[in-house]
């Protein structure tokens, strides 16, 4: 039957609606923007790349005035110790008996001692000796302590028990007393003083390194290195000590003034460097007799230099302790 002849036409698809749908894509929903700040560029802090550990530590250290003041003073002392004796026409051992106990003047900037020697030159020669003894002794403290404490902390068990009993025994002996006894027995000189100071001075570093290694040896990366066949020297040098370096640097910085003060004590007792060399301790020992005779500059100059060195190292050590502490990272 033809359409329209006695029946209704068959229903077909809505041509107009289907063509409209094919011609225009569906409308995307538009989300309302609640705050225009969300569409703005991210803050500068979000765009900064992550800082490294040491760079971030230096940034925190530079924000603190006292550690930076200590660092500036320390650098100044080192520079003056290096170039100070060269800017004066006098020698540290040159005597002028016609110019004894002269006060500071344009000729002798820090005055002269009882033998007519220039105190300015002798002060900076003493700075070289005192700083050399202090830094060398502190370095040896931690070289020996890292090896000894690293072995004890890594192996643990009976090895740790035996090694730490030796450390506890040496730790109970007064360090200064042992140093004085060994200095008396050994030949006088720089290296004899350093050897006497290192004899028992390393035990504190060994205990510190052992504690750090005991914590780090259970970390996943250390366990993975051991599972892959890594040997003890590689694990200690590549994984344990580098990750424990922050507390070690702080302790080493704080041990330098202790070593300098020990050397000054030995020199004050007459067990320091032999004459005609000078150190700050020998200058204090020579100048203490002038407290009641009016030549106060002989005692004041080395005392001020020792005090400035103590302050600079301690302030820098305190700043490094806070800067290298991961709990203070922001």
Task: Characterise the protein shown here.
With 330 residues, this protein is mostly helical. It has helices spanning 15-23, 44-47, 53-62, 65-83, 119-155, 157-171, 175-185, 190-201, 203-216, 220-227, 232-243, 245-268, 280-287, 297-323. The chain has one domain (74-84, 108-328): MetI-like fold. It contains 14 helices and no strands. Helix 5 (119-155) packs parallel to helix 8, helix 5 packs across helix 12 (245-268) and helix 7 runs antiparallel to helix 8. The model is unreliable at 1-11, 15-22, 33-42 and 44-50 (pLDDT under 50).
SSE blueprint:
Layout: H1 15-23, H2 44-47, H3 53-62, H4 65-83, H5 119-155, H6 157-171, H7 175-185, H8 190-201, H9 203-216, H10 220-227, H11 232-243, H12 245-268, H13 280-287, H14 297-323
Helix pairs in contact: 3-14, 4-5, 4-14, 5-6, 5-8, 5-9, 5-12, 6-9, 7-8, 12-13, 12-14, 13-14
Major β-sheet annotation: none
Q: Any idea what the radius of gyration is?
A: 36 Å
End-to-end separation in angstroms reads: 87 Å
Give helix and strand order, one letter per element, not per position. HHHHHHHHHHHHHH
CATH fold field value = MetI-like fold
């Amino acid at each position: 039957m033809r359409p329209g002849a006695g029946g209704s036409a068959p229903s077909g698809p809505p041509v107009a609606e289907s063509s409209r749908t094919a011609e225009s894509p569906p409308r995307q929903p538009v989300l309302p923007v609640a705050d225009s700040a969300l569409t703005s560029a991210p803050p500068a802090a979000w765009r900064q790349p992550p800082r490294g550990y040491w760079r971030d530590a230096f940034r925190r250290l530079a924000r603190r005035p006292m550690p930076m003041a200590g660092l500036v003073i320390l650098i100044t002392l080192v520079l003056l110790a290096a170039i100070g004796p060269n800017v004066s026409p006098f020698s540290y051992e040159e005597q002028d008996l016609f110019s004894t106990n002269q006060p500071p003047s344009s000729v002798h900037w820090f005055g002269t001692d009882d033998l007519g020697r220039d105190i300015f030159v002798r002060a900076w020669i003493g700075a070289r000796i005192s700083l050399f003894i202090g830094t060398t002794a502190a370095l040896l403290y931690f070289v020996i302590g890292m090896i000894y404490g690293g072995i004890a902390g890594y192996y643990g068990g009976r090895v740790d028990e035996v090694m730490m009993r030796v450390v506890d025994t040496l730790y109970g002996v007064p360090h200064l007393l042992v140093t004085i006894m060994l200095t008396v027995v050994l030949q006088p000189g720089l290296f004899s003083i350093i050897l006497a100071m290192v004899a028992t001075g390393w035990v504190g570093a060994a205990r510190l390194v052992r504690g750090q290694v005991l914590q780090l040896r259970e970390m996943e990366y250390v366990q993975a290195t051991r599972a892959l066949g890594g040997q003890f020297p590689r694990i200690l040098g590549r994984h344990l000590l580098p990750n424990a370096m922050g507390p070690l640097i702080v302790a080493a910085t704080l041990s330098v003034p202790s070593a300098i003060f020990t050397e000054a004590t030995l020199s004050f007792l007459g067990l320091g460097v032999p004459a005609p060399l000078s150190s700050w301790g020998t200058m204090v020992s020579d100048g203490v007799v002038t407290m009641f005779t009016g030549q106060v500059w002989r005692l004041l100059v080395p005392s001020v230099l020792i005090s400035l060195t103590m302050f600079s190292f301690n302030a820098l050590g305190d700043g490094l302790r806070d800067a290298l502490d991961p709990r203070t990272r922001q």
